[in-house]
Amino acid sequence: MREALDQEKLKVVYNGVARRYNFQHSFLTAGSDQRGRIILTDKAVCPRDKVLDCGAGTGSTALLAARRIGTSGQVVLLDMSDGMLAVARERIGRAGLSERVEFKTGDMLDLPFEDGSFDVVLSTYSTCPLKDPVKGAMELFRVARPGGRIGVAHSTNPETPLVKCLADKVERAVWLMPSISLGCRSVSVLPTLEQAGCKIIFKKQIGIPLWPFLVFVVEKPAT
Question: What is the pTM of this model?
Answer without folding.
Answer: 0.95
